[in-house]
Amino acid sequence: MTTQPSSDGSLTDDTHLGRVALRVGSLDRVVPFYRDVVGLAVERERDGSRAVLSAGEIPVVVLDEDSDAPERGRREAGLFHLAVRVPDRGALGDVLSRARTRATEAGATFSGASDHLVSEALYFRDPEGNGVEVYYDRPREEWPWTDDRRVSMDTLALDLGSLADDAAGEDRAPDGTDLGHVHLEVTNVSRSRDFYVDALGMRVRDEGYPSASFVAAGEYHHHVGLNSWNTRSAPAGEGRGIEWFEVVVPDAATLDAVRESLADGGHGFDDGGFDGDESGDGDAAGATDSLVVSDPDEIQIRVVHGG
């Protein structure tokens, strides 16, 4: 069934994120963390220079190897963290268990754990320094809602003992694991927020943190986080870090509404395939149409639909 776009042009709850791609210096260095700690399955592609990391049939993270890519510049916008969402607390407990025995061997750093009211989360640095969150969502009826249907998030201590007790005892990320959100370091939060809201069609969901904004399609707590905490002042470059991420819309009508909104806002975009995606899987699984646009910090967004 075709879902009609919302009357105000904003994206609905039928929209979600697809994959996120990182440019890395060495697959051999980075893959063990995503496989052995996060628990994703690994498939090598493109003459061994690409790895697609999946949970069941869902591709979540794409790693593109470029041994010549420099480290991300200290002034450059880019990834704060990518966020792998697991379907329940038991699966998050399994990540904690694997991290305690495997993170050091995999070259990763466990950097924290938080209760965000809407979710519970574990935080890591992968072997090349990319921020990685693994989290599960509490049921929506338990989220703190404001009078205008935004959410209220916080950063509280997470009881790791209780989380470990709830571990399901599985060695792999279960079916239903996906990319829940990406959190970006931007040069100007207001400018980026306006792009994601006014041009792309997301909604502001929470602005309770200083120098940050959280936006999403529909009433999700956030699909994109934006912050200027580390005072980035240059657009994203061609070094290691995020290459692109996907926004998956439900149908052609919604994609056409995004096209119209981008054009009305004077934002250039390309229709169709994705430059540099030589693997032949340029669109998300099942996608039949797509566009590519860059946000104000030159981070590429691939908007796709599955027909």
UniProtKB/TrEMBL annotation:
| Gene3D superfamilies cross-referenced by the UniProt entry | 2,3-Dihydroxybiphenyl 1,2-Dioxygenase, domain 1
> What keywords are assigned to this protein?
Metal-binding
Molecular function terms from GO: lactoylglutathione lyase activity; metal ion binding
Q: Does the keyword Metal-binding apply?
A: yes
The family database entries (PROSITE patterns) matched by this protein are listed as: GLYOXALASE_I_1, VOC
InterPro entries registered for this protein in UniProt: Glyas_Bleomycin-R_OHBP_Dase, Glyas_Fos-R_dOase_dom, Glyoxalase_1_CS, VOC_core
* SUPFAM superfamilies named among the record's database cross-references: Glyoxalase/Bleomycin resistance protein/Dihydroxybiphenyl dioxygenase (SSF54593)
Give start and end of each VOC domain: 16-137, 178-306
Query: Which Pfam families does the record associate with it?
Result: Glyoxalase (PF00903)
Where along the chain is composition biased (Acidic residues)? 272-281
Q: Where is this region: Disordered?
A: 266-291
- What name does UniProt use for this protein? Glyoxalase
> What species is this protein from?
Haloferax prahovense (strain DSM 18310 / JCM 13924 / TL6)
